[in-house]
Write a sequence for this structure.
């Protein structure tokens, strides 16, 4: 057990003394949790194999699941990769700093533990002022997965981090809720065509403008995921309460959710639902023990920002079953569909075909 210290930090203007302290802990090989614009990251210096191994231990993450390395700017990228792929400068100009991660050839000096032995490495230039201040002060690349225990929902608040990692990390910088709320979009640039490995904070449509050949496959079998991205296991972001998701025409989904809720209630189960504002009126008639909303499906970015917080809240409500509807795939809808499907461990009821990208 480690004693975990929590320091609050101003999101826009991080206090220099606090940032310097966090940088000191990092440089001594410690674990520092910090906010990024997507979710909180569990950081260690990427240059020390020993420090990086502590990340895997704290998260109980398999050593086969590679980490994302965070750098301040394109200069920092040179410490991490041995070659800049062709498409990278245009992506960097459009989306960095921001919620985009690219897979590039790995620099030989990077400890193998960071990339789980792979010859490629995931890198990102984050936009959050606290993350940037920390990278500037520490002046090292920082390896940081999401700061949750393995296969739990990613943390968008310091309280989520404490619930999962208290006693396992040295320091948590509490910069309030993270604005994007879902993880970065991951694009693999090591092969041709480029591949979308994980939908996230940068919308697929925006990426495709710069990478017209970008391949995306929205499939959810354990095998295809293992092949696509190490660590993209189907069971991911999962609440402990079983979750069933519904996909298709919204009206048909609401009917099916009501029917499922009634059936479960008849068996004495307590049922909760995760709904969009458009669903509330219909679902209010369902006798649900708990009904939470992500807001309007048309405000998909706000819905994304709330997703993991609401999922954790529902998980703590002592329910036996959770029901949710998938939004359409436009914009951040694709990332929400991915996270909810994984949270449901593939338990998806398809009511009619939906748009496939
Ligand atoms: O928004 C984010 O990306 C957050 C913040 C903290 O930056 N980080 C994050 O990291 O979500 P993590 O470890 O939870 O997810 C990173 C995923 C891994 O599960 C793995 O699938 C993929 O990135 N990845 C990392 N290195 C890779 C590589 N060399 N090749 C393919 N996929 C890789
Ligand atoms: Mg993660």
């Amino acid at each position: 057990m480690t004693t975990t210290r929590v320091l609050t930090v101003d999101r826009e203007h991080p206090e220099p003394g606090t940032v310097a302290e966090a940088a000191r802990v990092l440089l001594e090989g410690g674990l520092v949790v910090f906010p990024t614009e997507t979710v909180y990251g569990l950081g260690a210096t990427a240059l020390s194999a020993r420090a990086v191994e502590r990340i895997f231990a704290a998260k109980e993450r398999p050593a086969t699941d590679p980490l994302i390395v965070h750098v301040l700017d394109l200069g920092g990228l040179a410490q991490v990769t041995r070659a800049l792929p062709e498409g990278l400068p245009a992506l960097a100009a459009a989306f960095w700093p921001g919620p985009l991660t690219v897979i590039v050839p790995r620099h030989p000096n990077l400890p193998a533990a960071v990339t789980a032995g792979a010859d490629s490495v995931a890198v990102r230039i984050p936009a959050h002022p606290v993350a940037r201040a920390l990278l500037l002060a520490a002046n090292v690349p920082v390896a940081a997965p999401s700061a949750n225990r393995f296969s739990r929902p990613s943390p968008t608040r310091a309280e989520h981090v404490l619930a999962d990692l208290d006693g396992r990390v040295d320091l948590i910088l509490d910069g309030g809720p993270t604005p994007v709320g879902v993880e970065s979009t991951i694009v693999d640039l090591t092969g041709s065509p480029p591949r979308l490995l994980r939908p996230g904070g940068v919308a697929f449509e925006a990426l495709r403008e710069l990478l017209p050949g970008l391949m995306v496959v929205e499939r959810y079998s354990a095998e295809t995921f293992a092949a696509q991205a190490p660590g993209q296991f189907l069971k991911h972001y999962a609440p402990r309460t079983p979750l069933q998701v519904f996909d298709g025409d919204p009206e048909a989904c609401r009917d099916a959710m009501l029917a499922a809720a009634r059936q479960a209630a008849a068996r004495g189960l307590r049922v909760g639902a995760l709904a969009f504002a458009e669903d509330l009126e219909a679902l209010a008639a369902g006798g649900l023990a708990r009904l939470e909303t992500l807001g309007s499906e048309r405000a998909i970015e706000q819905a994304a920002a709330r997703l993991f917080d609401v999922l954790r809240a529902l998980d703590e409500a002592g329910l036996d079953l959770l029901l949710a509807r998938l939004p359409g795939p436009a914009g951040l809808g694709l990332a929400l569909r991915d996270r909810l499907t994984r949270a449901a461990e593939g338990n998806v009821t398809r009511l009619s075909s939906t748009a496939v990208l």
